[in-house]
Structures are given as structure tokens and as C-alpha cells.
Here is the input.
Amino acid sequence: MQETRSDRLPFMKMHGLGNDFVVIDERQGPSGLTEDIVVAIADRHRGIGFDQLAVIRPGHFTNAELVFYNADGSTSAACGNATRCIARFLMEESGDAHLTLKTERGVLFARDAGNGLTSVNMGKPQLEWQEIPLAHEMETLELPIDGAPTATGMGNPHCSFFVDDAEAVDLATFGATHEHHPLYPQRTNVQVAHLIGPDHLRMRVWERGVGVTLASGSSSCAVAVAAARRGLTGRKVTIELDGGTIWIDWAEDGVWMTGPTAHVADGHWRLR
Here is the structure.
């Protein structure tokens, strides 16, 4: 039987610091993507594999609208590194150095930071318990959990632990346990970090619905905000992730995240 265009789902593979994504462009019309297809594509042995899948849709009063899926098929309101990757793709496509992207988090601003780097403003952090959200009213700076982590919302919930040595933590076990902590009704991303110098952090991350990842943009923003709130750093920090270096600036207009991106390949997923 001859294959037709409708049998194929075009995709792009991108990554930011090893945090990898499959990107589906729906600006010309629906792709037929379903939750079952998302989960199938996510399989790193039988599919393509990704930390998140992102869909680009036509923007109304913005350059584009983005929707994010985790590897387990659940959706996420924010994905910082995917947003940066797509921003870079759209800027190269249009020739613009600035653009806006609509996400469930809100309208995000992106810009070319020069030297191959891309910056995205991830918006103002959510610091109140009901915004993150947590299960009930409490102070978010030090949660009543062993290790006294800090809770932060960046459009998705985060739980940031500051430890003596992030490398020594069994993150696979630690992250899986805390992702489902009862204080987080929507589950949470989990980070472990330690200070390696003035305004310089080492961080490792467990993403809800995914697992251990080499990097996470929204997690980097959350850790930078938490570190500044706790007096460990200023509001402008460098973070060393398993996949490389990212720069975070908690400015008056929101949390700016700057780092490299890579557009690795284009291909087609066979729908049948």
C-alpha cells in the first residue's frame, strides 16, 4: 500500500542542554496528535524519545501558541528549555530578534541574546501556597518536609532542596518519592542544588511525569528564585546542570532564562 501524507506526522527534534524535545508544528492545521501517540513517540526504545513534546499552534496577537506534554502523556503549563528552542526556531524562520509566545503560563517574551544564546522571560514566580499550588495554607520558603525545601511556582510546581552535595543524592529514588508528596496535589518537579561559588549553583533535576533529566528551564528558574529568597545568592545566578550551563536573572519584569539551543533533526512519525 502506498504511503500518503496523512500517514505521516512531521516532527522536529530539539534540545536545550540535553533536555530534549519532539516539536510538532500545527500552524498549518491539526496534526492528529493524541495522548496515545504522545506516549508512543516518548518511548526511547520503540519510539523517538523526549523529555517533553511541544506543539506549535497559530498565535492570536502573539507569534505562536505552545502546548506541552510530558513523556507520560500528561500536559504541563510550562517548559522553559522547549520554549527557548522554539523561540530560536521561529526567530531564525522570521528573521526577528524578539517575539512573544502564548503558553498556559501566559504570554512569554523571547529574544536573541547573541552568541547563539536565546533568552525567554518565564514570568514572575508564584510564591504563595495557593498559586503553586500546595495542598493547604503554609509558608513556602521552608516546607514541613525533611530537608526544608522551598516551594515555587513557575506555571508548574517545584520543590527545591539545598544540600551539601547534589552529586551524592540518589536522585532517581529521591525525585520519585517527592514528586508524589501529599503537599503537592498536582505532583511536583524536584531539584537538589548546592552552592559552588558566589551566585553559582550546581543543580540536578527530577521532572514530574518524566524522571531524571539533563536540564530543565523552569526548574532552573525555580531554584534561582528559591536561592535568592533564602539569601544564598543574589537574583542573578549561573547554574551548572548535568547538560551544561544556564543563566538566570530574576528581574523586576520576571525570571529571564538564557542558554544555548540545538535543532538536531527533522523527520516523520508513521501514524499507521
Summary: The chain has a mean pLDDT of 94. The first strand starts at residue 8 and ends at 16. The CA atoms of residues 129 and 136 lie 7 Å apart. Residues 150-252 form a domain with the Diaminopimelate Epimerase; Chain A, domain 1 fold (CATH 3.10.310.10).
